Every structure is written in structure tokens, then in C-alpha cells.
């Protein structure tokens, strides 16, 4: 059984699409070498069949039983070698296809994780999705066909040598005809490459549009915008269709060339061979061998054109991967990071301070101001000046900051798979998030397989499960942005009652204007319209001493 090793891929070469494909090839050199070896043996064993067949016919005409037996044995042996090498070539080719495709996905996912919050700002969703779907196949095919391509080149060379030994004119036909055929095919590759690039770009944009429509379908239905977005999607899909038709025109010419040019080549070799046989320059067995050679050459010649086509597709796909790899994250770790120590967390831009081990709430006149503070104290924005124990967060190692400070907001997603993998197996966090009833209603409890993005659950259920997932991480600092905005009042009251106990001794920051949560906070920071902290205190104190705060949390006019 051929194993499919996928080690850590290292740093990919993103200087060009061709260099990226070569980088992948170097990482699976053994698979490619195995495919080439068996591809050459597979094609070469087929190329020698006409020679053995010609020897057998000449032996039959000369009534030479010994040569005839040797010819038959040679044909049988070549058939066995062809069968075995064909199976092994195919296995190595499929392994190359899967390894290169999954390695590309591995590289893309790892880089997307490294980009973090930079990814949605710089790269469209459709581009990332297309890498794991369309580009996966094209890059895999570009490496898959190397086995047959190597065999085709060797087979053409061997057949040319054999023809030259018997008839120099017939050998020269092959020597001259093959480069001409390749040159003609090459004329079609440049427009094909350009048109495929355009189609790939449009397809990525269309995929992103579809993802946006699916994600916001409920909102579109609520505002009656389905028809508008459907018209936009229809118009963009027509652009992709037109681009696809333009690609198909060149592809049809390429496919026709794959049939016409080798066919003309075979007819020419057969015609010349027949004339030489009539004139007595070659024997009947050599004539049959020449015809068999000509018929056989159709396969390697078509492989050459197929290789050019798939390599073009692979280069277009690799270019999209390279474009993603060239995107640099907005935030990186410093060369000499400072030592991380637990302590108070403060944001100088707003004047907000989260005391160590204290449950702190942020209530803002403008909810986006509270979300901006959450981004800064979690180092999700490059402009952050937030400090942990007087040390600026940008001076700390980024991975340590991510382990120490966790932000959970309503843009987070549930992933497909067992629910236990999402929220852990502890009942304490499920109880704190008031999510135990969700688990009890599932057929297999925590072992139930949930759908992509948790679409099996309502908005409120998803929010509670996301909260349970955040609590299960138990980070030293947890920042929650509107964690109860989609749940009913009774459920919100239970969460507000249980959340402080679940986070006892840990620093917790909650961005909310819910009176239930604010009343449970140890301290509340009220952020005014200017984005800065205007007052601090307990919820009940601020209701009395700060009219603007009272108006914000009670939804009354100031």
C-alpha cells in the first residue's frame, strides 16, 4: 500500500506560480519519481509491442518456429509488464494528485490561520473557497500527469530510434513531425492561459457573492432584498458563463488538434511504410510494425498536449494560491518579545481598564465603540496601544497573546463535526452558558454531528454554544462581545447569574448594554459618544449618578 505522507510543508515558494509547483514537486519527490519510473516502464513496454509483433510476422513468413515462439513469449512478457506497471503508475499518479492537492489546502489553511483578522479584509471568501475546490483539482492534475508525460517522452524517443534503425526516412518523419505538433499546440496555450485566468477570477468573485447571499439570506428575506441580489448573482453568473464559453472555444480547438494532428501523423507514416513495403525496402513484418508504431504514437502525442493543457490549468490555480500567500498579516510577533505577565489590562485610547480577576462590563452609547475597545485589548488591530501589566501588547509574542486573551463575538462560527469537539465535554461550561437543554434535545447528546456553521440551531442556540466554547477554553482573559443579544430574557437572566461564578478569579470583559449582565458585573465602564470612558462604577451606582448611562441601558432618551 502506498502511503500518502503530508509532513509540515515548510515555507512555500510564493515568488511565482511555476516556482510554487516546483516547490510542491520537491516535497513529494519520491512520489513523482515513482510515478515517472512506472510511467516510463508502462509506456515503454507498449512501445516495444510493435517490434515483437513485426518479428513474429517475419518469423511466421519464414516458417521460423523458434523466432515465432520467442516473439510470442516477448509479447506475453510485455503484456504482463504493461499490466503491473500500469497499476503501479496509476497508484503513484493518484497519490501525486491527492498529495499535491491536500498539501495546497494545508498551506492555504495554515496561512489563513496566520493571517487571522487580516484575511477577511484582504481576500474575498470566494477566493479561499476556490482554492480548496477548483484549484485543488487543477494543481493535483498538473502533478498527476507527470508520470504519463515522462513515459510519453521516453516512448517517442525509443520509437524514433527503432524507426531510424529500419528506415531513416520514416524515423525522420517522427523526428520532424513531433516538434511541429508540439509547436502547433503551443500556439493555443497562451490564449488558453489568459482566458482561464479571467474565468478563474470571475468564478472566485461569484463564489464570494454566493457565500454572502447564503450567509445573509434571512436578512434579505426580512427586507425583501432577495430579488435584487438574485438579479446581481444572475448577471455575474452570466459573465462567468461567457468567460467559460471563451475558454471552451480554445479548448475545443486544442481537443481537435489532439485528434487531427496525431491522425495526420499516423496516416503519413502508414502511407510511407506501405510504399516502402511495395518497393521491397521493408518486409511485411516491418510494415505491420510501422503501422503499429504509428497507431501507438497517438497515445503519447495526445499525452504531450494533455500535459500542456493541465500544466496551464495548474499554473492558473497556483497563481491564485501564490496571491494568497503573498498577503502579509497586519500583526506579527516582535523579534525580541517581552515577557508576558498576568495583570491589569488597559486601553489608553479609551481610558478603559480591566482589573485582574475582576468581572468588568463595557456599556457604550455606540456599540461599535465597545467592539473597537475589545479589538484593541485583544490585539486584533495593528493600531492597538493596549497594555498588559504596563507592557504594550504589540511588544509581546503574538501566539502568547492569543493564548492569554480570547475574544468571542457573534461573528464566530460553529464548525461541522461532533458537538463535543466544539464545546468540550464538561457540563459546567454548558450549565454556565445555559446550553444544557440544547444538548439534552439532541439524539446523541454531545456526540451529535452538527452541520456546517451550526445551521441546525437557531440564532440563540448558536450564541449559547459559542459562549460555552469560549468558557471551555478558560483563558486568563476572556472578552465577550454582546454574548446574550440573541437569547430571550429568561435565558439571559440564567447566563447573567451563572457567568460570574464560572469566571471567578479570572479577568472577564463583557461588552453589553443588557441590564441583567451589567447588574452582575463587579464594575461597569460607561463609554460616551466620543469613544472614551466617561464614568465607572457598579450598575446601580451609574444609574443614579450618570443620566447618560441610564438612558443608554434603559433605552430612554437622555
Q: Care to describe what's here?
A:
This protein has 22 helices and twelve strands. By secondary structure, the protein is α/β, with parallel strands linked by helices. The strands form three sheets. It has a six-stranded mixed beta sheet with strand order 6-9-10-3-11-12, with helices on both faces. It has a four-stranded antiparallel beta sheet with strand order 2-1-4-5, covered by helices on one side. Strands 7-8 form a two-stranded antiparallel ribbon. Helix 4 packs antiparallel against helix 7, helix 8 packs antiparallel against helix 9 and helix 9 packs parallel to helix 12.
- Sheet with the most strands: spatial strand order: 6-9-10-3-11-12
Q: Give the structural class.
A: alpha/beta
Query: Span between N and C termini?
Result: 74 Å
Strand content: 5-15%
Spans where pLDDT lies below 50 across 5 or more residues: 1-7
Arithmetic mean of pLDDT: 86
| Major beta-sheet overview | 6 strands, mixed
> What is the β-strand count?
12
The global form is: elongated
Radius of gyration over all CA atoms, rounded: 34 Å
* Total number of helices: 22
Helix content: 55-70%
Amino acid at each position: 500500500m502506498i502511503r500518502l505522507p503530508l509532513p509540515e510543508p515548510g515555507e512555500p515558494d510564493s515568488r511565482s506560480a511555476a516556482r510554487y509547483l516546483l516547490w510542491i514537486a520537491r516535497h513529494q519527490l519520491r512520489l513523482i519519481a515513482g510515478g515517472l519510473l512506472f510511467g516510463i516502464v508502462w509506456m515503454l513496454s507498449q512501445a516495444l509491442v510493435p517490434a515483437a509483433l513485426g518479428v513474429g510476422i517475419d518469423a511466421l513468413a519464414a516458417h521460423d518456429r523458434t523466432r515465432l515462439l520467442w516473439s510470442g513469449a516477448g509479447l506475453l512478457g510485455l503484456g504482463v509488464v504493461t499490466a503491473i506497471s500500469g497499476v503501479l503508475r496509476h497508484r503513484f499518479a493518484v497519490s501525486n494528485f491527492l498529495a499535491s492537492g491536500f498539501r495546497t489546502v494545508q498551506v492555504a489553511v495554515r496561512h489563513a490561520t496566520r493571517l487571522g483578522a487580516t484575511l477577511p479584509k484582504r481576500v474575498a471568501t470566494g477566493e479561499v473557497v476556490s482554492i480548496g475546490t477548483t484549484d485543488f483539482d487543477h494543481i493535483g492534475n498538473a502533478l498527476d500527469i507527470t508520470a504519463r508525460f515522462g513515459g510519453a517522452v521516453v516512448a517517442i524517443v525509443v520509437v524514433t530510434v527503432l524507426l531510424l534503425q529500419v528506415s531513416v526516412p520514416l524515423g525522420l518523419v517522427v523526428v520532424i513531425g513531433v516538434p511541429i505538433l508540439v509547436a502547433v499546440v503551443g500556439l493555443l496555450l497562451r490564449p488558453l492561459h489568459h482566458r482561464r485566468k479571467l474565468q478563474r477570477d470571475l468564478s472566485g468573485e461569484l463564489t464570494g457573492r454566493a457565500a454572502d447571499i447564503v450567509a445573509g439570506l434571512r436578512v434579505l428575506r426580512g427586507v425583501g432584498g432577495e430579488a435584487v441580489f438574485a438579479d446581481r448573482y444572475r448577471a455575474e453568473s452570466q459573465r462567468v458563463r461567457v468567460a467559460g464559453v471563451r475558454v471552451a472555444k480554445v479548448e475545443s480547438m486544442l481537443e481537435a488538434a489532439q485528434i487531427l494532428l496525431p491522425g495526420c501523423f499516423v496516416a503519413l507514416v502508414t502511407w510511407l511504410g506501405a510504399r516502402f513495403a511495395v518497393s521491397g525496402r521493408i518486409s511485411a513484418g516491418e510494415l505491420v510494425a510501422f503501422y503499429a508504431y504509428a497507431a501507438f504514437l497517438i497515445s503519447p502525442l495526445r499525452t504531450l498536449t494533455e500535459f500542456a493543457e493541465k500544466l496551464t490549468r495548474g499554473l492558473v490555480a497556483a497563481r491564485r494560491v501564490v496571491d494568497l500567500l503573498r498577503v502579509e498579516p497586519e500583526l506579527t510577533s516582535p523579534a525580541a518579545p517581552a515577557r508576558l505577565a498576568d495583570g491589569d489590562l488597559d486601553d489608553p485610547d479609551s481610558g478603559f481598564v480591566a482589573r485582574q480577576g475582576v468581572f468588568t462590563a463595557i456599556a457604550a452609547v455606540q456599540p461599535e465603540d465597545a467592539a473597537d475597545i475589545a479589538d484593541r485589548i485583544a490585539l486584533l488591530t495593528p493600531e492597538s496601544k493596549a497594555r498588559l501589566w504596563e507592557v504594550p501588547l504589540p511588544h509581546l509574542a503574538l501566539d502568547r497573546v492569543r493564548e492569554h486573551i480570547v475574544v468571542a463575538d457573534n461573528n464566530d462560527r460553529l464548525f461541522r463535526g461532533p458537538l463535543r469537539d466544539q464545546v468540550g465535554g464538561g457540563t459546567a461550561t454548558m450549565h454556565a452558558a445555559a446550553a444544557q437543554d440544547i444538548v439534552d434535545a439532541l439524539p446523541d447528546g454531545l456526540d451529535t454531528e452538527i452541520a456546517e456553521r451550526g445551521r441546525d440551531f437557531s440564532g440563540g442556540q448558536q450564541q449559547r454554544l459559542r459562549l460555552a466554547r469560549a468558557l471551555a477554553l478558560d483563558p486568563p482573559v476572556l472578552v465577550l462581545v454582546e454574548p446574550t443579544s440573541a437569547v430571550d430574557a429568561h435565558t439571559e437572566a440564567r447566563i447573567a447569574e451563572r457567568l460570574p461564578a464560572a469566571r471567578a478569579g479570572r479577568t472577564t470583559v463583557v461588552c453589553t448594554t443588557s441590564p441583567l449582565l451589567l447588574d452582575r458585573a463587579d464594575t461597569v465602564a460607561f463609554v460616551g459618544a466620543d469613544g472614551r470612558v466617561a464614568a465607572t462604577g457598579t450598575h446601580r451606582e451609574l444609574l443614579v449618578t450618570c443620566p447618560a448611562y441610564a438612558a443608554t441601558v434603559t433605552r430612554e432618551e437622555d
